[in-house]
Amino acid sequence: MTDLKIAGDVIAAENDKRTAALTTDYTALGEKLARSNIDIEAVTRKVSEFFVAVPSWGVGTGGTRFARFPGLGEPRHIFDKLEDCSVIQQLTRATPTVSLHIPWDKADPKELKAKGDSLGLGFDAMNSNTFSDSADQAHSYKYGSLSHVDAATRAQAVEHNLECIEIGNALGSKALTVWIGDGSNFPGQSNFTRQFERYLDSMRTIYQALPDDWRLFSEHKMYEPAFYSTVVQDWGTNYLIAQTLGDKAFCLVDLGHHAPNTNIEMIVARLIQFGKLGGFHFNDSKYGDDDLDAGSVEPYRLFLVFNELVDAEHRGVKGFHPAHMIDQSHNVTDPIESLIASANEIRRAYAQALLVDRAALEGFQEENDALMATETLKRAYRTDVEPILAEARRRAGGAIDPIATYRFSGYRARVASERPAVKGGSGGIV
Ligand SMILES: [Mn+2]
């Protein structure tokens, strides 16, 4: 029996207020789509089967390099975090899994698994952390981890990743995501080639320990915390890593880890073409790795990324099953609300991409009709698919309006009374 954090009758009462309007809107949209030979039920079914993992670190209030302003009722530990994640899943029915970060979320794997089971949550990709030091570690990562000049430091970082695999195995996870902060702040500080050789050696050891049914995701990022060079700086280097390691190694694309104006959808297409797209960290950005809510700044870009994913699905690309994860930092909102909104925006982009008339698009491309080709995308993007998203939630037992229902439930006030307020505002992203 699932331990529900929002009472079932609260969702039912909130849905009752909105069901009649939704039925009207869903019927109208169905008629409109039918005129374009699109079966709304087929789209709703696909949307219902699309899921995105919530990051455990996303339910706490984040911060910047300057300060962190804690919110009310912040989760104290991973078990509180899992409860918050279950609220997002209960209301959206789009986020049945959680992605853990070790050592932040370290606990007895048996207890973690039992808690996940009780809340109806599974575990997605494990994330290692060799970009900060834990109190008890022998060697510091100040000058790097998997690519460090010192062999003992590299071995310690490798060992940590092996531990993440072990914990993940006990939880039913099937992937390890490796992002390192290694790089340099000054020209000449590091030898680019030797540094990358050391990184590849370390990753080979991790790769060899990977169970057969696991995938290894390497995540690129152009800068920060290193500001002159980063070891895994872009998708090209990331592709070389996946190619060098083997069939179980794939590239993870975090939407915020590129230079402004980079054509990310094209990177996605290239990685799909060469069988190395592992998955995503969804978020949005204006300038850099802003970790803003998915679809909040550039929803059209998110749609264009999904257009590539649906195109691959449509073409039946062999072995195509990218992992979908959110990676955001919430500084000024209730993190649960941000994650609910983000999961909906990600599903929205998927639903819009499903509406693209692919046969027509291909025809326009063949005829070099640029205007009609781009209009074909725009027509799908301009469609208000909210009734499809809401109906998918309602049918799965979620909320027609998940944020309104969350506010109405009083969950935040309830946990604020149970969880002592976090004192002070230490800096740094958590
Ligand atoms: Mn990320």
Task: Please supply descriptive tags for the structure shown above.
430 residues; 3-stranded parallel beta sheet; 15 helices; 12 strands; 48% helix; disordered C terminus; binds manganese (II) ion
A few lines on this structure:
This protein has 430 residues and is α/β, with parallel strands linked by helices. It has helices spanning 8-34, 40-48, 78-92, 109-119, 151-171, 192-208, 235-245, 264-273, 299-315, 335-354, 358-366, 370-382, 386-395, 402-409, 411-418; strands at residues 54-55, 97-99, 101-102, 122-123, 126-128, 175-178, 183-184, 215-219, 229-230, 249-254, 277-282, 323-326.
Provide a descriptive summary of the structure in words.
The chain is built from 15 helices and twelve strands. It has helices at residues 8-34, 40-48, 78-92, 109-119, 151-171, 192-208, 235-245, 264-273, 299-315, 335-354, 358-366, 370-382, 386-395, 402-409, 411-418; strands spanning 54-55, 97-99, 101-102, 122-123, 126-128, 175-178, 183-184, 215-219, 229-230, 249-254, 277-282, 323-326. The protein has a seven-stranded parallel β-sheet. It has a three-stranded parallel β-sheet with strand order 1-2-4, with helices on one face. The chain has a two-stranded antiparallel ribbon with strand order 7-9. The radius of gyration is 22 Å and the shape is globular. 44% of the residues are buried. Mean pLDDT is 96; it is low at 425-430. The structure holds manganese (II) ion (MN).
